[in-house]
Amino acid sequence: MVNRVKRRVSCFPKATYYKPREIPLCCLEIANLSIEELEAIRLCDLLQIEQNEAADRMGVSRKTFWNDLQKARQKVADALVNGKAIEISGGEYVNTGECKVNFLCKECDHVWEPGFDQDRPTSCPNCGSGLIFRLGGDGRGKRFIENNYCCPKEKESSRNTGEESKKK
Asked: Does residue 25 sit in helix, strand or coil?
């Protein structure tokens, strides 16, 4: 297997999910768009940078950039035409430092910005807790939500499993 080059990414999404209106997320199929695929769309379609320059910015060949861009456009088109949700998460990338990312510890409410050359933190530098979230979403579908909303179907299934475990 060929070693996959980590793409350089300079901007992270403000939101990690997009979905059709009035349909609960738990009832939708999800198309997963990686961070580097989103970066390819951002550079080429939003900023209208030529593909040669965009490939240079991401640190990949033009062919690799073109492949990433085509995969991303295919996923977005599939989601829009077929009424799927889009989740933006995952991938193999390196933060170039242009985009600032803040994390929040749910245990001690400490907010911090890790260095651009660091991977996603696994624990809070203040208290050591693993309950950390990227403010605005962490790119993996984990978002700090103050009211702890979850899908009604998930609540219903957790009640059913909870009642079954009490009976046993």
From this structure: helix
